[in-house]
Amino acid sequence: MKMLKRISVILAAAMIAASPVLAEGQNEAAVPKAPIKLVMWGGVPPEAGPQAVCDLFNKEFASKNISIEYERFVNDDQGNLKLETNLLAGGDIDIYVTYSVDRLRKRFEGKMALELSDLMKKTGFDLESAIGPEGAMISKMDGKVAGVASKTYNNGFWVNKDMFDAAGIPIPKSWTWDEFYAISKKLTKGEGDSKVYGTFFQSNTYKAANLLEMAGVQFGGNHIYAKDFKSTTFDNPQYEKILATVVKMMNEGIMPNHMESTSQKLQGSALFASGKIAMVYGTWLYRDIKDLTKYPHTFVSAYVPFPTDNPSGTYYMPGGPGDQIVINPKSKNVEAAWAFVKWYVEGGIIPMAPFGRFPLYTKTDMVKLEAAALAGAEKLFDKTSTVNGFLTPAKKFLVDTFGNPQVTTIINEEVELALIGQKTPKQALADAKKRADAVLASK
Asked: In which band, very low, low, confident or very high, does the pLDDT at 419 lie, cut at 50, 70 and 90?
């Protein structure tokens, strides 16, 4: 009951904070003679923001005779198949959310996604100025607008600010891999049950993925592939440095090693909340940090970006744009559906903020977003780093437009062999390149 009350308070605060923003981006649509009820499908549980979004839209568009209701589908293979079956069968879906570029392409090519250029032109909506170049890029299929990316998040580390303060370490705004190693080592202390590790990557779940993402902040999208996509770049010296640093930290007890993580099924949220680690990979844990019922703690969390050995160069923020909002071409209420999409992108998404989905919209009022995102949890987060680093959309995002599942499997296998000491980082990456390049050459 306490958790339900807390969620209600957060949603109420989010809706109050959102209202002024929404008025600025509200659509001017003709009032239909008969009421229009839109149906939207999405993969997020209704209590985690979507129902509050619908309630707010229904309140603001009551005078226009337009309302919306939400139905959840589980965002897995079976759930997406259910969505597509309904779309192809002519179900009553007007709007739906797509959570990956490959699924958006499939749906656009399969005539399950309405091309939106005419609607945007009619209402003066400029895609790139509204959601940025990377957002526009993942919203288009072969130059045609298949949906509108709506949310973003900035990935990085959550760090225990109390531990940093006690050690006399300022919260880094940027840092190199050598500095990351030194700080992690300084924050490691104790033995046995009282041991505190400097950091944790949860390699049991992510294997190579998190290491490659951190390398990408320096190199940009598709960084593991050559420009012609016919070979990989696993011989890049920076990959070896990152992998070697991680292996060294595991061997020195600065972070739990891969065998410990796997055998004990270690989880970042639990370790971080209990004070067993000073830093944790993955800012999506924001929701867990706010959940004091499941993860009780009193320390302050601060946001820190990933290390880069080119601090003066472009920083490509991992995480980035997503949640493309799509209109069903078979909808009988296309203009009303577009009114919702435009409203949602320009501010209607705000009630999703308490649950980790932040607006991609370039003109978002950050004061309103901060109030919604941190409502009820203000004392748990360092305001400066959280607002400036975590909530504010980055200038450049790390966006991949190409991927090969076999290559992903190969790099995961080889990195894991390095993590458990069966291969050196250099040998693992060399073997990964040889195997992956052979796969790409065979295409």
From this structure: very high
Kindly tell me if the per-residue pLDDT of 14 is higher than 50: no
The first and second tokens of residue 227, run together, are: 């420009």
Sign of the alpha-carbon dihedral angle for 418, 423, 426, 428: negative
Collapsing DSSP to helix, strand or coil, 157 comes out as strand
Output the CA–CA distances (angstroms, integers) from residue 199 to 180, 184, 369, 380, in the order listed: 10, 6, 29, 19
The one-character DSSP state at 354 is G
What local confidence, expressed as pLDDT, does residue 31 receive?
61
* CA torsion through residues 203, 386, 215, 162, sign: negative
Distance, in Å, from the CA atom of 142 to the CA atom of 137, rounded to the nearest integer, reads 10
Q: What is the DSSP string of 202-269?
A: -HHHHTTHHHHHHHHHHH-TTTTB-TTSSSB-TT-HHHHHHHHHHHHHHHTTSS--HHHHHHTT--HH
Amino acid at 318: P
Above 80 in pLDDT, residue 349? yes
Banded pLDDT at 395 (limits 50, 70, 90): confident
- Reported as a single tens digit per residue, the pLDDT across 55-78 is 999 999 999 999 999 999 999 999
The answer to whether residues 47 and 394 touch, using CB atoms and an 8 Å cutoff, is no
State the Cα–Cα distance between residues 42 and 50, nearest whole angstrom.
8
258 close to 131: Cβ distance less than 8 angstroms: no
Report how far residue 263's alpha carbon sits from residue 98's, in angstroms, rounded to the nearest whole number.
35
Sheet holding 157-160, edge to edge: 279-281, 157-160, 301-304
**Residue 200 near residue 279 (C-beta atoms within 8 A):** yes
Cβ atoms of 307 and 187 within 8 Å: the answer is: no
- The answer to whether the Cα torsion of 177, 182, 186, 190 is positive or negative is positive
Q: What is the pTM of this model?
A: 0.83
